[in-house]
Amino acid sequence: MSITTALDALIDRYVGLYAEHNKPLLVERQDDWDAPIYREPWDHDPDYVIWQPVQQTHPLNFKDLAAALEMPFQSDFADYYSRWFAGDLAVDWNHHPLQLLHIHCTEDGERLLANCAGHILMKRRLKQPPTLFIGLAEEADDLLLTVDNETGVVGLEWVGQEQHEVLADSLETFIQEVTPRLQSIGEES
């Protein structure tokens, strides 16, 4: 199985879980973005919109950033962010509640590239192995879910620290092993 096949299956499982429970997929609306995932306003809170995943027709391109940093990116990492426009996905991995980050639109992709550059430059300054973030742990705002750019290992790391807990040997394996979960936003009465 490839990372794109694993990610497609996760998206299907995620959307299916919400459909099964008759819950809308919700994301905080960014008014300055014309995101293709935005479907309709949510009646219960004007700051949120119902979303739907949309496959990217012009995949996010990591080549210029890789050239500028003189560092190729893990192909699974690039494929992960180049496949879907989507809201962040609430998942569990071995009792870790996580948020898998995704981009909403092209502008969000540009913001992601800038954040990746900043993260890599911080890692270089700290003389740590380069990692690439794909999510956040819900137990703490500064606990990142990352992919080691050299080995492909998925793990947890505190901001400014090296990975301290390995979750999977590869992003593909990790995506196959996570479990989608429902996330409550506001009052859905």
TrEMBL record:
This protein's UniProt keywords: Cell inner membrane, Cell membrane, Membrane
InterPro entries per the UniProt record, alphabetical: Syd, Syd_sf
TM stretches of this protein: none
GO cellular component: cytoplasmic side of plasma membrane
NCBIfam families: PRK04968.1
The keyword Cell inner membrane is annotated on this UniProt entry: yes
Protein name in UniProt: SecY-interacting protein
Species, as recorded: Pseudidiomarina aestuarii
Pfam family, one: Syd
CDD domains: Syd (cd16323)
